Amino acid sequence: MVAIRNSQFANQNPQAGLVNAAAIIAAGNIASRVLGLAREMVIAYLFGATGLVSVFRVAATIIQTLYDFLVGGMVSAALVPVFSDYATRREELWRVASLVFNTLAIFLALAVLVLEIFAPQLVWLLGSGYDVELQRAAVEMLRGVLPAVFFLGMSGVVTGLLYSLKRFTFPAFTTAAYNAGIVLVALALAPIFGITSLIVGILVGSAAQVLLQLPALRDLRYHFAIDFSHPALGRILKLYAPVVAGLSISVVSVVMDRNLASHTGAQSLAWMQNATVLVQLPLGLVATAISFAILPELSSQYSVSSIQTTEHGTLNTEHFQSTLAFGIKLVLLLILPATIGLFVLAHPIVALVFERGAFTPNDTSATARALQFYLLGLPFAAMDQPLVFAFYARKNTLLPNLVQFVAVAIYLVVALALMRPLGFIGLVIANSAMLTAHALVMLALTRAHLGGLGGQGVLTLTLKALVASSVMGVVVFFVAQVFDVRVWQVGGAILAGGAVYLALLWLLRVHEAARLWDIVLARLRR
């Protein structure tokens, strides 16, 4: 049996499979990010960057934080690894999945009811600096949007199940459905309900996430049963417990960030959120897509290595390290030029995307400043994701979440030191410092516990990509000065910069870029 599995594994091309999976996820991310930009553009156009928009951000942040805390972290840390173990035993997989669905549905329903009661306290925690009227509006928004947590939670479990089966297409487009719901409902109902239309849009979008994925589970044999003694539930809880601890610290950091922002001005959070959307665009398209693509492969490779350890007494991590290194190199190859390009074009991009309707030139300047300081932490945040997922694949959820304690402590120190002299920009710098610290510690832990990435050419590629990206940034800056019209200014600079970057990768003989191109061409031919 072991010989058969090893033979099958040897015949696979994990790099091609990784790129193919990442391409599907990236396509979904492109759709979701485009619609996410459309969502933010609609919000900026209809409602500007006012205090009311800031407290809407508070309500939306609570929903997202609750989802991350209750389900989101469970998908990558526990659901995919555990479901993957049952992937070859479909009947048992369906039973385990049904138990998870049923258990989580009960828990989420109870959580929503409790949180409805304590909505005022939640709003105060994240927005004590807002006046009474704005806090009252935030409480009404939060109570209206809390049921979305239930739908988001159910969607997360379906996503974890489909990823474990390596069915990436439907889960890849869930966020696109979510954003589309908000955009369409806001445009349709804003003239009638005002900013409350955004709340209705979140509810519609979260329900659409579940409905979109159901066709991919057409072969699911659902079991209406609850069995808290099933070993799979115990393993999920065991893997998720350290994640809960780490997410608890993340929740604390979000609470601090939002609360401190409320004391730097009513508009600060709206500006920070607009900048965050632009940072999340490359992060989602590159780091998240590649990380989720390598997670099932890393989990499978670790399972094979564990079997080999039982047979031969040594753990062979060669394939595991190679896959992880290839994923990180892809991330760096794509994220470094995106970071430098966004930094140079920060003001014209923000103006092109947001400056219309109720969004003023002053809002553009403030958002662009925030964007540039957020970008300082982007490469580290992008590299951090596959490192964390590598630990999750080996069913080690403790260490990555212990690192969160250190990162949040750094955030707090930097934020308190810089908030008074720099206002909300101090909070942005603190966020970048937190992301940087987390990635650097994870690199050290990767060396200590996973054998590191030495001998895989990661450092060489990083230096080459950094040189090519820096030259590209200079070209982008000068090309942007040629045009007066924003769309030409941004478009012309991106086209010229992209051409220069690709040419430099060829001159510097970056083999990973050629490998990526070959895999993409092979997929297109098929």
Low-confidence stretches: 1-12, 306-315
Major sheet: size, sense and barrel closure?
Answer: none
Helix content: over 70%
- Alpha-beta content class: mainly alpha
Describe this structure in words.
This protein has 526 residues and is mostly helical. It has a domain at 51-248. It has helices at 2-11, 14-47, 51-85, 90-117, 119-127, 132-145, 148-164, 169-172, 174-193, 196-213, 231-262, 268-312, 318-344, 346-354, 361-374, 378-393, 398-422, 424-449, 458-482, 486-507, 511-525. α3 (51-85) runs parallel beside α7 (148-164), α9 runs antiparallel to α10 and α12 packs parallel to α15. It is globular. The model is unreliable at 1-12 and 306-315 (pLDDT under 50).
SSE blueprint:
Layout: H1 2-11, H2 14-47, H3 51-85, H4 90-117, H5 119-127, H6 132-145, H7 148-164, H8 169-172, H9 174-193, H10 196-213, H11 231-262, H12 268-312, H13 318-344, H14 346-354, H15 361-374, H16 378-393, H17 398-422, H18 424-449, H19 458-482, H20 486-507, H21 511-525
Helix pairs in contact: 2-9, 2-12, 3-5, 3-6, 3-7, 3-11, 3-12, 4-7, 5-6, 5-11, 6-10, 7-10, 9-10, 11-17, 12-13, 12-15, 12-16, 13-16, 13-19, 14-15, 14-20, 15-18, 16-18, 17-18, 19-20
